[in-house]
């Protein structure tokens, strides 16, 4: 605790201020804090004084006094009213600044799902950790693919719920980089939390925020968009398979138990499997080939393997590009 | 319209033995389970809500112990993320629906209110009994949820998660739905009792403030609770029939659920805190031996809180994506509720001025209440202000804030009130020294539990987390240690009361020198409450009450009654 207090970049009550809003929010917080502390100390002091002065002891009796005093009572109604009016005013003017992003803001799509974050950048790159340039307005367009989540970066003092079937947004200007270069080890990233309870792994739905110099950011962004380039397709496919969360539901080690929601995918290439086509009642056999994989990714419920529930999410071209599907196909072919 | 009078009630199990009281007038399980006596119903509620409090408290301790380590103190097979989520859900649901909402109105209010108006019972004794039976039934549904597939939605049942989860949402919502009726019955009874059964001479502005507070509470209970009932029915329909009211996948709106839910649940906060404020008004006056300062302001502030409390629900949704204009309006309205609450605190303080302050256990709880409730109220300012709320929303700052209001406020006032009326309820005096000692332990434990939560919350620790990043560990550990101390204090406070049942000396009619009517009958009260209809005086005029060492309590001083009054209530 002492080490926290000694950390000069943060106060006892706050993480470091890392956005242009943070200073305003913290100043309002401090104002309310000192005002509250004043009233609290005054209330407790009066209470303690009265208890000491008027407590029951031998020979002490109560003394008659006025049972009401309108001037006094109106005073102590009006003064707090004015003070809270002040707090309200500052609270909402700063808030309006935080809601309206500038027109030239750099836009990042944020997709929240149980239980991970996905960030999609204007050039089509995507990542499970957030990377943004420093000193630039960045607007986040928030979506959820299942239940309510909430996008919260304490260092920026921003928070906004992600509501399924609806877009919400928030924005920020980060005022300091988290480190230099694009290597993660050189950074001290900020925490990004999910703040709206969303089921089992709500508390593990964390991500990190990296703030780069513009030139580093551009470099990172290019690498992120072309992560399949320059490596063999099977290797790229494995990366895509992990990056898109396929491993959460599909074993590649032959585990077909209920621990995995979907069937195991290794050693299956070119074999027949029993599926129930959408709308049909009896199963039919299909071969696991390129077309079946592509269809299963784009329209997971078209042909569900017998004994499995239709729970796989739809991967739109935005979420999973064609070249990524090709790489994944190469990867699945290679699995024994 | 026919007025309901106490005489119209049916005499069941009445015993003519003058030494008998409501506890001994008839015996056996059935004489309690089907009693129409408001006092017995109050006592049964007391047993019921304390059982719930114990259950919810055990869950709270398990939660806090688990949070001692960032990845959980207990091994996976004992408490994993799923069990943690179920624990905090049931802790919240049980504490809210089964304990704190009925605590003051249904347990203490039931016992005290008819005595305060000098009546033999509430206006509708059968409805009163039904309210208790419904409470038991609602509690059974919660237990069904607990022992079957449990519940993991959070006590707020937010959609669409509550539509998708495989846990027993239906049992829990049926339970909450039934408890809603229980709450409405209590409220209805109080409104009619206060309106029709006040004795001659007890005008509105001569009512004890506890009655004002429970009356204001009853208005909220009747107006807000049906909204919760309908919302929960819609939620059940949504889960069973998939009709797309709240589920966005079917074209519904999850934010609509939040509006419906908080339209009840924010006023419900005032169902919890208003009667607690009523208790504090009584305690501050009686134990300072001073008329309550600014009676009219306190009375009106109760009504103001009840009415304004309906207009602020949107402040739970500042980051839900509602329009900025909506947020600004709700923020402004939210601050309006803070003023009547502040007025009450100032009035309570002024009541002590030039008094003769008796630091008996109930007064210790009342002083503790003022300390804790002030923190709870002032920290509400940070959450009502939009810019700071964005950062603090859904963090531990909120958890600490509402525990200071709900527990530091309502529960502390409830325990203080229980100590105050205990001699009347059971006819025994408890051990003052232990009473005060455990009040202190509760106070220390409480602050140690929740003060660190303000700090970790403002540093960004989100709520409802089974695991967390290590930088918050120190605050969690302090909080957990505090929770253990608080738990011990609470167990001690209850033990003092239970021990008094067996070892306490017999209580006089009026041990504290209070001037409200419930202290004019014997302790415990006779089956019919009063031998003769009591004479109504000012509820806060203590000048003619004198301590009689032989009785061990206060009696009317015939000399003082003849003296000219230097201090009148108005």
Automatic annotation (TrEMBL), chain B:
SUPFAM superfamilies the UniProt entry points to: Cytochrome c oxidase subunit I-like
Coiled coil: none
Pfam families: COX1
Main location (coarse class): membrane
Keywords: Electron transport, Heme, Iron, Membrane, Metal-binding, Respiratory chain, Transmembrane, Transmembrane helix, Transport
InterPro entries, A to Z: Cyt_c_oxase-like_su1_dom, Cyt_c_oxase-like_su1_sf, Cyt_C_Oxase_1, Cyt_c_Oxase_su1_BS
Transmembrane segments: 43-67, 87-117, 129-149, 169-192, 212-236, 256-280, 292-313, 325-343, 364-387, 402-422, 434-455, 475-502
Subcellular location: Membrane
Superkingdom assignment: Bacteria
Protein name per the record: Cytochrome c oxidase subunit I
Organism: Blastopirellula marina
């Amino acid at each position: 605790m002492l080490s926290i207090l000694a950390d000069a970049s943060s106060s006892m009550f706050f993480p470091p201020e890392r956005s242009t809003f943070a200073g305003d929010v913290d100043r309002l917080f401090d104002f309310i804090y000192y005002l509250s502390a004043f009233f609290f100390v005054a209330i407790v002091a009066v209470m303690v004084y009265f208890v000491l002065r008027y407590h029951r002891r031998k020979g002490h009796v109560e003394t008659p006094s006025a049972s009401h005093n309108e001037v006094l009572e109106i005073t102590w109604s009006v003064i707090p009213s004015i003070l809270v009016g002040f707090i309200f005013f500052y609270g909402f003017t700063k808030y309006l600044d935080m809601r309206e992003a500038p027109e030239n803001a750099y836009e990042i799509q944020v997709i929240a799902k149980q239980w991970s974050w996905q960030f999609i950048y204007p050039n089509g790159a995507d990542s499970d950790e957030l990377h943004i340039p420093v000193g630039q307005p960045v607007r986040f367009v928030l979506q959820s693919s299942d239940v309510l989540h909430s996008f919260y970066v304490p260092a920026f003092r921003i928070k906004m719920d992600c509501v399924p079937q609806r877009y919400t947004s928030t924005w920020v200007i980060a005022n300091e980089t988290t480190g230099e270069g694009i290597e993660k080890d050189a950074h001290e990233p900020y925490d990004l939390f999910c703040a709206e309870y969303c089921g089992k792994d709500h508390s593990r739905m964390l991500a990190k925020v990296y703030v780069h110099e513009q030139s580093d950011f551009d470099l990172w962004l290019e690498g992120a968009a072309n992560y399949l380039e320059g490596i063999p397709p099977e290797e790229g496919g494995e990366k895509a398979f992990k990056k898109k969360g396929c491993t959460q539901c599909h074993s590649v080690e032959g585990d077909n138990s209920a621990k995995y929601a979907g069937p195991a995918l290794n050693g299956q290439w070119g074999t027949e499997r029993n599926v129930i086509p959408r709308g049909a009642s009896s199963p039919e056999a299909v071969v696991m080939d390129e077309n079946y994989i592509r269809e299963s990714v784009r329209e997971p419920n078209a042909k569900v393997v017998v004994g499995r529930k239709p729970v796989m999410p739809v991967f739109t071209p935005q979420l999973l590009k064609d070249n990524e599907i090709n790489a994944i196909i190469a990867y699945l072919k290679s699995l024994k | 319209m026919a007025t309901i009078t106490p005489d119209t009630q049916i005499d069941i199990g009445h015993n003519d033995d003058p030494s008998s009281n409501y506890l001994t007038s008839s015996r056996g399980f059935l004489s309690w389970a089907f009693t129409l006596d408001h006092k017995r119903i109050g006592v049964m509620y007391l047993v019921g809500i304390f059982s719930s409090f114990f259950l919810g408290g055990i869950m709270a301790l398990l939660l806090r112990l688990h949070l001692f380590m960032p990845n959980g103190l207990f091994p996976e097979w004992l408490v994993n993320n799923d069990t943690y989520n179920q624990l905090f859900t049931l802790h919240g649901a049980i504490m809210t629906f089964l304990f704190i909402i009925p605590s003051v109105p249904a347990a203490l209010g039931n016992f005290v209110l008819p005595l305060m108006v000098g009546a033999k019972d509430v206006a509708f004794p059968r409805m009163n009994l039904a309210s208790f039976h419904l409470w038991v039934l609602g509690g059974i549904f919660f237990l069904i949820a607990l022992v079957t597939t449990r519940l993991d939605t959070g006590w707020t049942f937010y959609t669409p998660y509550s539509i998708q989860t495989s846990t027993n949402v239906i049992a829990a919502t049926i339970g909450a739905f039934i408890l809603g009726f229980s709450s409405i019955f209590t409220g209805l009874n109080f409104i009619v009792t206060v309106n029709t059964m006040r004795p001659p001479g007890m005008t509105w502005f001569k009512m004890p403030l506890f009655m004002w507070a429970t009356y204001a509470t009853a208005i909220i209970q009747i107006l807000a609770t049906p909204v919760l009932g309908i919302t929960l029915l819609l939620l059940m329909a949504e889960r069973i029939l998939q009709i797309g009211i709240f589920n966005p996948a079917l074209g519904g709106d999850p934010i609509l659920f939040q509006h419906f839910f908080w339209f009840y649940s924010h006023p419900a906060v005032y169902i919890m805190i208003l009667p607690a404020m009523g208790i504090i008004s009584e305690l501050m006056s009686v134990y300072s031996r001073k008329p309550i300062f600014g009676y009219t302001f306190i009375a009106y502030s109760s009504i103001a809180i009840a009415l304004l409390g309906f207009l602020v629900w949107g402040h739970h949704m500042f980051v839900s994506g509602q329009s900025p204009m909506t947020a600004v309006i709700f923020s402004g309205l939210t601050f309006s509720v803070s003023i009547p609450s502040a007025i009450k605190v100032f009035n309570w303080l002024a009541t002590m001025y030039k008094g003769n302050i008796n630091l008996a256990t109930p007064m210790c709880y009342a002083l503790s209440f003022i300390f804790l409730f002030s923190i709870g109220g002032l920290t509400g300012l940070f959450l009502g202000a939009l810019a700071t709320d964005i950062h603090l929303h859904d963090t531990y700052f909120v958890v600490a804030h509402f525990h200071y209001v709900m527990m530091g406020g309502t529960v502390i006032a409830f325990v203080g009130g229980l100590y105050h009326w205990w001699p009347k309820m059971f006819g025994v005096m408890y051990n003052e020294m232990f009473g005060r000692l455990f009040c202190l332990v509760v106070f220390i434990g409480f602050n140690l539990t929740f003060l660190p939560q303000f700090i970790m919350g403002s540093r960004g620790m989100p709520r409802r987390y089974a695991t967390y990043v290590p930088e918050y560990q120190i605050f969690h550990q302090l909080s957990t240690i505090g929770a253990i101390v608080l738990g011990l204090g609470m167990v001690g406070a209850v033990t003092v009361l239970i021990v008094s049942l067996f070892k306490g000396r017999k209580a006089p009619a009026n041990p504290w020198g209070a001037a409200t009517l419930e202290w004019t009958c014997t302790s415990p009260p006779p089956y019919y409450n009063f031998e003769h209809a009591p004479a109504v005086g000012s509820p806060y005029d203590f000048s003619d009450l004198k301590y009689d060492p032989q009785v061990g309590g206060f009696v009317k001083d015939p000399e003082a009654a003849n003296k000219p009054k230097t201090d009148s209530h108005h």
